[in-house]
Amino acid sequence: MKSPYLEIDLSKIINNAIKLQEMLSDKQINITFITKGVLANLDIIKAVQKAGIKYFGDSRIDNIKKVKLNLPNINYTLIRIPRLSELDDVVEYCDYSLQSELDIIKELDKRAQEKNKIHNIILMVDVGDLREGVLVADVLPTIKEILKLDNIKLSGIGTNVGCYRSIMPSVENTQILVDLKHKIKDECYYEIEMISGGSTCTTRLFFNNQLNPEINFLRIGEAILLGEDSTNDIKINGFEDDAFILSAEIVELKNKPSLPIGQKGKDAFGNENEYIDYGAIDRAILAIGRQDVIIEALEPLDDQIKILGGSSDHMILDVTKSSTTYNLGDCISFRCCYSAMLTSMASPYVTKIFK
Fold first, then answer.
1. If DSSP codes are grouped into helix, strand and coil, which group holds residue 345?
2. Of 133, 224, 127, which is closest to residue 168 (Cα–Cα)?
């Protein structure tokens, strides 16, 4: 088998999807399954559909176009604010899109009118993370302008937290959306259908019975794919966390000093690294590097192995304490956290194997 390779266990993804779907649907919460982390892989999408999930989302229009050409009836949301240059594709291929700029929404209305279509949008509200979104004070004036447009339907409001400034979902900042829903009804005489209350990190509120019952959509990728919530640094109880296993081959195996010798500068990525002198250690070099995966987001299945670092093409391990005797040509395997899954799925040098 050509290495490095990423083994993807579809049954574990399906199990997680079924569990979460059952939990959330009991509270009338819909899942928008986010596919960007797996490059909108069709095998994974079809597996998640088996769990009964009907809504999908991606940040890349090219991913959505690929899926739509194969599964034309799938419901897809563009979750990154679109570029002006891609608005025709947004109207053509997306059922919904997240929006925050009124000028883009107005231009989107023109493109939808040209294609004789109605396009659904979710207006994003910035509740503190300072990524995309209209400031709370500007929401009602913005919506009043949106409601003047003939080919745009305001389907909902939403927010994003946890991805940029690490602001966590809370009872307070999700309540902002609920309050806005009622203000929109009272002041604009318009009732929105959807409140998209966040991503996997918002599930913590749900599991703690703190999520407002009017939140009826969550954008979920990580919880289903990896059974974890990395923003809150938790593994989700009862979920499979090893659906993505990355393996790479040993190309050098030597006993060497742990402290580099010579004048120290920055590494190839501009980082200044600190080293601890542990004496001589057994080091394994793997034929995989930062061009293929974020190595800090890997967890060795052999818990006696320590990842020391890596370059663009190599990863260096300390295997001194391992009870396994490794040889040249052996593969060492790792559980992927989110960013490791994201980058290894995107690497053309990593073979993908579906189980």
1. helix
2. 127
Structure tokens at 95: 């059922």
Judge whether 122 and 98 are in contact, CB under 8 Å. Answer: yes
Residue 136 corresponds to which tokens in the numbers above?
């709370």
Pick from 6-20, 152-166, 315-329: least confident: 152-166
Containing 282, the helix (H) or strand (E) segment is strand 280-286
Two tokens at 36?
């960007």
Q: State both tokens at 190.
A: 């318009």
Counting beta carbons within 10 angstroms of the beta carbon of residue 42, is it exposed (0 to 12), middle (13 to 18) or buried (19 or more)?
middle
* pLDDT (tens digit per residue) in 134-162: 999 999 999 999 999 999 999 999 998 75
With the C-alpha atoms ordered 187, 128, 27, 32, is the resulting torsion angle positive or negative? positive
Would you say how long the chain is, in residues?
Answer: 355
Instruction: Provide the token pair at 77.
Output: 């949301």
**Residue reference for tokens 């919530």:** 229
pLDDT at residue 270, as a whole number: 65
User: Any idea which residue has 């010579």 for tokens?
Assistant: 262
* Range 312-322 average pLDDT: 97
Q: What does the alpha-carbon distance between residue 245 and residue 71 come to, in Å, rounded to a whole number?
A: 27
Q: Which of 12, 19, 36, 181 is catalytic?
A: 36
Burial (CB count within 10 angstroms: exposed 0-12, middle 13-18, buried 19+), residue 268: exposed
The pTM for the full model equals 0.91
Query: 81 — alpha (psi -120 to 50), left (phi > 0) or beta?
Result: beta
Least confident interval from 142-156, 231-245, 296-310: 231-245
Residue 36 a catalytic site member: yes
Query: Which residues have CB under 8 Å from 152's CB, separation 6+?
Result: 105, 108, 109, 112, 118, 119, 121, 146
Higher pLDDT, 83 or 129: 83
Geometric angle at alpha carbon 88, from 82 and 89, rounded to 5°: 70
Q: Is 294 exposed, middle or buried (0-12, 13-18, 19+ CB in 10 A)?
A: middle
